[in-house]
Amino acid sequence: MYTENLIWYRKADQKDVDFFSKRVSSKFSPLDQKEIHTIGHKPHGNFSPKKLLVMQPHSKEVEPALGIWLKWDFRSEPIEFRLFLGQWSIIDKKNTFIAFRFEAPEAGDEHDFFHCQPCRNFGDREDLPEAAPISKRFPTIPLNASNIVELTLCALMSTMGRKKTRKFMQNLMRDGDSNINSVLRTSYSRCCKD
Questions:
Q1: What is the pLDDT of residue 80?
Q2: 57 prior amide bond cis, ω within 30
Q3: pLDDT: is 134 or 39 the higher one?
Q4: pLDDT value of residue 81
Q5: How far is the C-alpha of 145 from the C-alpha of 188, rounded, in Å?
Q6: Residue 2 clears pLDDT 70, i.e. is over it
Q7: Of the residues 13, 83, 138, 165, which has the maximum number of CB atoms within 10 A of its CB?
Q8: Chain centre distance of CA 57
Q9: 32-80 confidence digits (pLDDT tens)
Q10: Nearest in space to 54 (alpha carbons), one of 41, 69, 39, 40
Q11: What is the pTM of this model?
């Protein structure tokens, strides 16, 4: 997915690339491939505050840029896992940013379930100037996830749709690691049923 998204970015319609370079790259830059491979080996961390995993927009929408930012801490109880998904686009001729954070259950009884909430930034940064004026805490949307793999699949399917998510998962499971494949296959069958 990472390579495909960078190929899309490099070959995208000039208007989209121009939008990305003017609006997004003033604050963020795409993650390097080597940074992607270190994620699974750290018990806690986050993407650099100025780095994003760039995603290809959904083909049916006019979305100039999508980005993902992660923060995690597997040492805490309960674990902390936040996946921020943001979209820059032009709505009613205005540059607009809208985002959602996909989160693991939190301590206490208010958000102690896998959920998604609107946000106006990535991580603990200040609100982005083009962020849509939305509540940062409401609504809290429960998700059909029981672990962070399923939570990540819910986030991906929200942007990619079922067909592209299925193709992405098939490509990912071609990897020879049967332990990873088992977790992915189980997660996919549970939360992304055909």
A1: 93
A2: no
A3: 134
A4: 93
A5: 10
A6: no
A7: 83
A8: 12
A9: 766 666 666 788 888 888 888 877 666 555 556 788 899 999 999 999 9
A10: 69
A11: 0.80
Round to whole Å and give the CA distance between 190 and 166. Answer: 13
Q: Are 114 and 143 in contact (CB under 8 A)?
A: yes
Amino acid at 173: M
The rounded radius of gyration (Å) of the Cα atoms in the chain is 17
Read out DSSP for 90-159? EETTEEEEEEEEEE---SSSSS-S-EEEEESSSTTSPPPTTB----SS---EE-S-SSHHHHHHHHHHHH
Mean of all residue pLDDT scores within the chain: 78
Q: What does the block give as tokens for 114?
A: 């896998």
Report residue 147 as tokens.
Answer: 């672990």
- Counting Cβ atoms within 10 Å, is residue 15 exposed (0-12), middle (13-18) or buried (19+)? exposed
Q: Which residue type, as a one-letter code, is found at position 114?
A: F
Structure confidence at residue 91 as a pLDDT band (50, 70, 90):
confident
Residue written as tokens 């946000």? 119
Residue at token pair 């106006």: 120
CA 137 to CA 62: how far, in whole Å?
27
Residues, the chain: 194
Residue pair 132/96 in contact by the 8 Å Cβ criterion: yes
